[in-house]
Amino acid sequence: MSDVIASPSVRALAGRMGIDIEQLADDLGRTTIAREDLERDTPARVPAGDKSYWDVDHGKYGPVTEEPMSRFARVAAANLGAANAVIPQVTHHDRADVTAIEAFRREMKDEARARGVKLTALAFHVKATALALRAFPRFNASLTPDGETLVLKDYVHIGIAVDTPHGLMVPVIRDADRRGLLQIAADISDLAARAQERKVGPDEMGGASMTISSLGGIGGTAFTPIVNPPELAILGITRTETATVWDGDTPRPAPMLPLDLSYDHRVINGADAARFMAHLCRLLADPRRMLI
Q1: Domain count, the chain
Q2: 119 and 38 in a common domain
Q3: HSE-up of 10 (CA within 13 Å, CB side)?
Q4: Catalytic (active site) residue 265
Q5: Does the residue 50 lie in any domain?
Q6: Is 131 within 8 Å of 290 (Cβ atoms)?
Q7: Which of 32, 65, 86 is at the close of a domain?
Q8: β strands within the chain, DSSP E
Q9: Do residues 70 and 139 both lie within one domain?
Q10: Does pLDDT of 271 surpass 70?
Q11: Which of 7, 21, 198, 279 has the most CB atoms less than 10 A away?
Q12: Would you call 158 exposed, middle or buried from its count of C-beta atoms within 10 A (0-12, 13-18, 19+)?
């Protein structure tokens, strides 16, 4: 009797796909398997033909050591490879003026601390992205595996990519559009801390409307995040930089946040992406819009 919890339809699909449910659950460190887990387990594809160029004796060129990839890392690598091979991905780059957000964070710092919460900039990004998904429902959707049906979602869940010693984890903040900034900040802190210790449960991962991958604490000016299927888009964030903006004829220095939106071009076109990002930038430029 299997200890893995999966519906009959999921088990039937796994059989058709040739996937060992028990092995997949073990690889993911999970006790439950859903349809999206099977779809994410599509093997990474390499170009057809002779693959001998991958099989190289690197040691003949100099000293080497070998480090086995963990099961967690192997599954993630297969998912990313498959996603990059299948999805026609485009990345739209933009910047948002976060002067008002930084001022509001300073204003709320003591109140947040009194509640035991650190109000990070990421909390504003999660809230703004959630509201933008409500305003642009086509982004809050998934394409069925056969590519024939678009599934529009009446909920907004935001995945947060967390860098951990055992690989990238993406816990999910549920109903982010209906949560306050302080609650979102508390959720981020809690999920990120537990992800580092691999204490995030299977019910706290999966089902995201969109993922946010923030490199702001490390650096960089832009990057191209890979869409995490079955999501249709992913938002990348890098380090805020000071730039000159103009208020009429008057220049002023302003903290500008680089934003990188990668999207599935089968569903989302360039004009859609530009409008989505313009709306997101307006929300970030004036956080009062998030409170309406």
Answers
A1: 2
A2: no
A3: 17
A4: yes
A5: no
A6: yes
A7: 86
A8: 89-97, 141-143, 150-152, 158-160, 162-164, 167-169, 172-173, 210-214, 233-237, 241-247, 250-264
A9: no
A10: yes
A11: 21
A12: buried
Q: Which two tokens mark 40?
A: 């994410």
Of the listed 92, 93, 166, 265, which one is catalytic? 265
Could you read off the pLDDT of 179-224 as tens digits, one per residue? 999 999 999 999 999 999 989 988 898 899 999 999 988 888 999 9
48 is a domain residue? no
Asked whether residue 79 falls in the same domain as residue 114, the answer is no
Cα 204 from Cα 191, distance rounded (Å): 9
For position 204, which CATH number holds? 3.30.559.10
Separation of alpha carbons 183 and 190, rounded Å: 11
Q: Which two tokens stand for residue 11?
A: 């088990």
C-alpha–C-alpha distance, residues 25 and 102, integer Å: 42
For 112, other C-beta atoms within 10 Å of its C-beta total: 19
The residue range of the domain holding 61 is 1-43+57-86
User: Which tokens in the block code for residue 153?
Assistant: 């979602």
Q: Give residue-wise pLDDT tens across range 214-233.
A: 998 888 899 999 999 999 99
3-state SS track over 249-260 = CEEEEEEEEEEE
